[in-house]
Amino acid sequence: MFNTQNNKQHKMKLYGGNKMLPIERRNAIKNLMSEKKSVTVTELSQFFNVTEETIRRDLNILEKEGVLIRTYGGAFIQEGTLNQIDYSLREGNHVESKKNIAAKCINFVQNGDSVFLDSSTTAAYIARALSKMKITVLTDSLKIMTMLSNYDNIKLIGTGGELSQRTMSFIGPGAVQSINQYFVDVAFISCRSISLENHITDSNEYLAQVRQHIIERSNKTFVVADYSKFGRTSFYHICHFSKIHAIVTDKPLDQDWHTTLNKYNVQLYDN
Hints:
- The structure is a single chain.
- This protein is α/β, with parallel strands linked by helices.
- It folds into two domains: 74 residues, Orthogonal Bundle (Arc Repressor Mutant, subunit A), CATH 1.10.10.10; 175 residues, Rossmann fold.
- Helices cover 40% and strands 22% of the residues.
- It contains eleven helices and 15 strands.
- The strands form four sheets. The protein has a seven-stranded parallel beta sheet with strand order 6-5-4-9-12-14-15, with helices on both faces. It has a three-stranded antiparallel beta sheet with strand order 1-3-2.
- Helix 3 crosses helix 4, helix 6 packs across helix 7 and helix 7 runs parallel beside helix 8.
- About 4% of the residues have low confidence.
C-alpha cells in the first residue's frame, strides 16, 4: 500500500497542487509502476484523489501504449527478474488459460492420491477441479485451504509457517519443515518464468524454497504455467528440467521446447 500522507505531500511538491492534468497523472502512474511493479485501482484512486473509473481509463490508455498489463482490479508490468505481483492482481489474469490447465490436471490424479498444491493462482483452479475427488491435499496456500475446508471427501493439511499477505501463502522455515515431514504422489507447482536456458525460476525467494523442497518429496511434479511465463527468466532458480515429470500449459509451444524437454524425459502437455 502507498503511504498516503507522505505521497500526497510528495505529489504536491512535484505538481504544485492537488489538480493534475490527465497526462501528468498517467506519467506519475508510470513512475509508480516502475517502483512497485503492480498497483490496484483502489490504491491509485486514493492516491490521486480521483474516481476509480478515471483510473481505469488511465490504465486502459497505458496498456494500449504497452506500458503495463491490465488485470481485474489493477495492473502490473511483466519485466524484471525480481518483479513480484500481488495475488489479488494475478488472480484475475489469464483466467481461461488457468481453467484450461486445471482441466488437464484432473487426468493426473486418482482417488486416494496425496496431492500438493502450491500457492499459485493456477493451483487454486486445480483445487476447484479436484474438489469432488477423495484425496489428501497438502498446501501452503491460504486460499486453497479456505476453498477446500468444507469438503468432507478431502483430507486437508496446511503447511503452517509465516503468512505472506502479498502471496496469500505460508512461507519460511515453518513451511519448509512441515513439507519435509511428508511425501506426496503428485505435486502441482507453478513459477514466475520458464526458459530453455535457465529452466524454472521465480521472483520470490520464499516461494522458490517451498517449491524446491516439495519437488524432493513428490513422486511426480507437474509444473503448471500459462503461455505468458515461457521464454522468461526470474531471479531465483527453482529447479532444472530434469527434476520434474511434466509441464502443463495452455497453448502449443514450438519444436525447440519439445526437443529440449524430451532430452530430459519431461512430458509436455501443450494442446
